[in-house]
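HOLO CASE FILE
Compound: molybdenum atom
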Amino acid sequence: MQVTPWNTYQNRREFLNKMIKIGAIASIAPSQLIIAKNNRHFLSQTPIKSAQNYNNYYEFSTNKEAVMHLANSFSISPWSISIEGEVKNPLTLSLSDILDLESVERVYPLRCVEGWSMVIPWKGIELRKILNQARVKTTAKYVKFVGTYRPEEMFNQRRKILPWPYTEGLRIDEAMHPLTILATGMYDETLSKQNGAPIRLVVPWKYGFKSIKAIQKIIVQKEKPKTSWNMQIPSEYGFYANVNPSVAHPRWSQSREVRIGELRKRPTNPFNGFKNEVSHMYKNLDLELNF
Ligand SMILES: Nc1nc2c(c(=O)[nH]1)N[C@H]1C(S)=C(S)[C@@H](COP(=O)(O)O)O[C@H]1N2
Ligand SMILES: [Mo]
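Model generated. Tokens follow.
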């Protein structure tokens, strides 16, 4: 039997620890190489701990590491979502109604407008499933998503840092796109509170702020909805917010991003890698004006 000398063992262990610290192991483990549906890029998942410890969720805190602690006492049961507005069949679905629908699993990169990204394996349902169930009228042009207003549990809502409740919106064709999902889980677990439990939107070709957490209402409408970030700082956060490396944020470039766990920046992909799937929706739109 061959015995590994102690110092070799020790060195290897130190090397391994270092690699784990910088996330390099996670990016080469072959079992973690997964191809997103319709996406030709190989994606290695961000470690679950990073996805759960580093969160934007302004209702709780603007400190990313504090969110997981502050969201802990947020109560998410019972929960229901209403689908209303320009629909023939308005619905109120409980969380268990939603969990009974046909689910999908999707590995998507999440690109924050701040310049970092993570690769997260989601579980959820396609949004178009429940929009079809509500029977959207032909007059419908947009969908508005309303988050939760509960300042007694979401302490940061006592500060007027954003118009509350957190509100987002999509054009109807974007909402009906098969890549657009409502997530109820990630990494084979129930969605954690800091990630938007019990149910949040995920729109993979748009900046992360479009993917609103803890949704209570989905309102189909004729008018373009007013959205929280756009109302707060219209010159920096547009309605479309498609990931676009060639349109800079007024205060920083969007051409590259830091994948959490990696050391070097990587180039940002147009539409976050989903150009083939979604660019047809924007043929008649100036993407510099409609940022
Ligand atoms: N309700 C709500 N949803 C939200 C936010 C928020 O502050 N409140 N932040 C957004 C931003 S800026 C990002 S980048 C993502 C982060 O999602 P994650 O914490 O699951 O990675 O959530 C988005 N959804
Ligand atoms: Mo973000």
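CASE NOTES: The CA atoms of residues 88 and 135 lie 5 Å apart. Residues 46-280 form a domain with the Sulfite Oxidase; Chain A, domain 2 fold (CATH 3.90.420.10).
CLOSED: yes
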